[in-house]
Amino acid sequence: MENTRASLMFKTLAVAAIGLSATFVMLVRDPSDTLFGGGYPELWRRTGLAGAPTRAAACIFAGVFLLAMGWLYRLLFAPLELLRGVDEVGYIAEDGRSRAQAANEVRRRRKTGELPPVYPNGWYRVLDSHMLERGDVKSVTVLGQQVAVFRGQDGKAYVVDAYCPHLGANLAVGGRVVGGCIECPFHGWQFRGVDGRCVKIPYADKVPEFAKVRCWPSCEINGLVLVWFHCDGLEPSWRVPEQSQITRGEWVYRGRTEHFINAHIEEIPENAADIAHLAHLHTPGIVSGVDLRYTNSKTWEFIRHDWKVEWKPEPEPNKHCSQMLVKHALTVFGRHWPLLDLDVLARQVGPGVVFLLFEHSFLGRGVIMHCVTPVEPLLQCVSHTIFYQSSIPPLVPKFILRAECIQFERDVMIWNNKTYISKPMLVKEDSAIQKHRRWFSQFYSENSPRLRYQHDTLDF
Ligand code: FES
Ligand SMILES: [Fe+2]
User: Fold this and answer.
1) Band of the pLDDT at 78, cuts 50, 70, 90?
2) ipTM associated with this complex
3) Starting from the edge strand earliest in sequence, which strands make up the sheet with 145-151, in order?
4) Which terminus of the chain has a lower count of CB atoms within 10 Å, N or C?
5) Element at 404 (helix H, strand E)
6) Euclidean distance between CA atoms 300 and 64, whole angstroms
7) Ligand nearest to the CA of 283
8) What is the C-alpha to C-alpha distance for residues 419 and 210, in angstroms, rounded to an integer?
9) Residue 18 has pLDDT above 80, yes or no
10) What class of enzyme is it?
11) pLDDT exceeds cutoff 50 at 1
12) Angle at Cα 128 formed by Cα 127 and Cα 131, nearest 5°?
């Protein structure tokens, strides 16, 4: 609603600007006008060039004005979309190597260590709801598998295996939504989203019972399309809770970021229990950037973030959840700015979803949905989607998301280049890490897939 109003205002301003510029250009006919107060040279008059410089200047001015308006509109109203490529963050590309070369080298050379299983049981995000319109089909890789995500004409989102069981065409590449079904682009078989059953074979009299595509248990909540994975095919044993402010439309979408991380999935949530790293990695002000070679530079020393953190698992019946309570304070030139104190509750629900709930006296309330989805055994897609009180100017949540993204990218540089240590050398103050590992182990079961070879990954 608010976005529609803003966009209407912008369109009105743009039309007014174009109208004014056009009028101005048309009015510039007289050679004795603006630029040449004393009249044009005779030659210009004869060749018909009189008035042209002013008209050109007016056109350039109108163009620049429109560009500036567009930029201002995006800054003030449009959601922040920060989508990082697989090799874009956290690698050091030196000696003339490209970022992709640096990333591939790190992946090839890395010692993976003794890893836990690579795909824990749980709910994982496949897409944000707004990315899937009615009738859309998207191809997504989750947990090493290709899936087709589509939204039926009934408005429901469905997730099925991408490869058609008939002859293997990819349903997400050229497939078409027909009612609540997806139609294969190769021979036109139609599969129902609800249960994967084939309901139509255009050239056959009868559809055999066994004609079926695998259908993933899925749900749509808090603006996310999620799938359930269990290595033994068991049904979901818990649900991702609803954030009612999102459903009621009180908190609205203000942007998202996406990163690909070259690490085992468990490294990412373990960060919440690694309390000591906050005081080291995340203390330098966000102005000092994300490249860990420079974040401790003297130039930005005057601005520091202070963190007080506590991590604990939740008791039954929510033992699949854990909580990190964060108290953030900002100091500038050693002076604490209480107005910028921020409390965050990070509630992890299963291995793949975290609710980062913000509460601030005047900056308002909102949530960042932090989702980790394994793409391959050692490649995680991490998305942060922010929903914020609709009454707060979008610039505020966009700034929060951007700031969070800077801190997160520092972790990315660590994760992308580290190895997993199954028996780490810990001190007493690191005890939450072991607790976290015990808590996280509930998402593995005997048949959870393991990494077979160190190079069980693809090059970027
Ligand atoms: S491969 Fe899909 S219908 Fe033939
Ligand atoms: Fe961190």
Assistant:
1) very high
2) 0.97
3) 137-142, 145-151, 157-161
4) N
5) helix 395-417
6) 34
7) 2
8) 45
9) no
10) oxidoreductase
11) no
12) 90
* Structure-token pair, residue 387: 């929903």
Is 193 in contact with 160 (CB distance < 8 Å)? yes
Mean pLDDT of 113-134: 95
List 356's β-bridge partners, or say none.
346, 368
Amino acid at 351: P
- Classify the C-alpha dihedral 307-308-309-315 as positive or negative: negative
- Residue 215 assigned as binding residue: no
Please report the atom of ligand 1 found closest to the CA of residue 187: 3
Give the C-alpha separation, 323 to 325, whole Å.
6
Q: Is the CB of 169 within 6 Å of ligand 1?
A: yes
User: 187: annotated binding-site residue?
Assistant: yes
pLDDT exceeds 80 at position 82: yes
Q: How confident is the model at residue 48 (pLDDT cuts 50, 70, 90)?
A: low
- In the block, residue with structure tokens 């951007």: 402
CA of 443 to the centre of ligand 1 (A): 36
SS3 annotation, 409-425: HHHHHHHHHCCCCCCCC
Distance CA 391, CA 371 (A): 26
Question: What is the pLDDT at residue 379?
Answer: 95
